[in-house]
Amino acid sequence: MKSYCLGTLVIFLFTAAFLPAKAPAANPAQGCDADASPDTWGGRDISMEMTPQGATLQFDCAHGLVLEPIKANAKGDFIARGSYTPEHGGPISLANPPRDLPATYKGSIKGDTMRLQVVLADKDKDQSPDPYTLTRGKTGRVVRCR
Fold it and tell me: Where would you tag: which of 10, 78, 84, 104 has the fewest CB atoms within 10 A of its CB?
């Protein structure tokens, strides 16, 4: 029995010493591991799920998509293209469905705090929301339009 336990221990130690350990997922702000689970960010009136491909956002009366990875530079600043779709309460008319507006998502990440601004084209600028402050790991406080 002792030789069995000793043999098992030797195999375990050999495996642990010579097989490469899996590297931790990269910081989402610096680029993500393709297999990483979504990274949740949230704040007042906003919730965001960041993935290696981009992000999905829920606002009080809108939703958005970031269509490319959010990669912060050395200063923590980022800019990414996407879409922003304003919503309204009540039924959605087939004659006037929600319209995806081209958007630029820009901001900065410092530690677990993100500042985010949604920038719309000049013709839609009046629908741009105020800037947001998000915290990593929080789901956000979003009240959907009804």
Answer: 10
- Locate 58 and state its tokens: 């829920």
Structure-block tokens of residue 110 = 């410092």
Helices marked H in the chain: 2-18
CA atoms within 13 A on the CB side of 44: 5
CA distance 140 to 146: 18
Q: What's this model's pTM, rounded to 2 decimal places?
A: 0.69
pLDDT along the chain (146 residues), means of 10: 43 40 40 57 96 95 95 96 87 74 96 95 77 94 82
Cβ(80)–Cβ(68) below 8 Å: yes
Domain boundaries, the chain: 26-136
State the Cα–Cα distance between residues 50 and 28, nearest whole angstrom: 8
